[in-house]
Amino acid sequence: MFDPVDSSATMPEVVSNGGSNSGTSDPWLLIETSGRTGQVGLARRGEVILSRLLDPSRRHARDLTPAVVELLQQAGIAPAACAGVMVSLGPGSFTGLRVGVMSAKTFAYATGCALRAVPTFAAVAEQAPPRCTPLWVVADALRGHAYAQLFQRSDHGWEAQTELLLLPWEQWRSHVAAEAFVSGPGALQAAEHWPELALTPPETHHPTLQGLYAAGSRMPDLSRSELFALEPLYIRPSYAEEQRRPPSSP
After folding, report:
1. How does DSSP assign 208-248, residue by residue?
2. CB atoms within 10 A of CB 213
3. For position 189, which CATH number holds?
4. What residues make up the domain containing 134?
5. Example GO biological process term (predicted)?
6. Does residue 130 sit in helix, strand or coil?
7. H runs (alpha helix) in 15-139
8. 36 part of a folded domain
9. pLDDT tens, residue by residue, 176-229
10. Are residues 149 and 175 in the same domain?
11. How many CB atoms are closer than 10 A to CB 85?
12. pTM for the full model?
């Protein structure tokens, strides 16, 4: 069911944020389920040491748990020995994000470890070459719309310059400066419509565990109340939820 993945394709630098439980020498559980194929991994001392791909045909919490257990057993690490868990928050697959966030919350609550919620686009930005700034990260939001967020590289790393946006693709294109680069799951789709766009290398377009770890290492731990309230980063309801809505009055 689970296949090893090569986590060395992109190796963004991991920098501790200096907060409590922020030491990257301790093992961190990583959960990335924003795409069709989810991943779980373990990281320490700035790099991913073990990882697994999840079967894309099985998208339930009960299927993610055995992968985590197997990973910890292979590493010889008890769940309670983990410094924390970092989870990809979205945007992305509604089902995958819901399963990933729920599993991360359960693990953190059961073990008492830290939980860090990492916006998926922040992880993607970490994978871009430093020269590719300013950087738009984009993904297809369906029905003619895009998710988009602008990042800028500084001495402190990649920093978001806008909120996560949901807007028509054509409207997004009007905001893209000539010197900007484009990455994210929707980068190739954007380039099909606008070949003049400058893209980052293809291997950096989709979130990786190393990108998740790099972005999460610069973020604070959630408080207990924040843990309980945490939800995936949804900007719009799923298509199924929209179909269940009563029609609006004229």
Report:
1. -HHHHHHHHTTSPPPPHHHHHH-----SS--HHHHHHSPPP
2. 28
3. 3.30.420.40
4. 128-204
5. tRNA threonylcarbamoyladenosine modification
6. coil
7. 61-75, 94-111, 120-126
8. yes
9. 999 999 999 999 999 999 999 999 999 999 999 999 999 999 999 999 999 999
10. yes
11. 25
12. 0.86
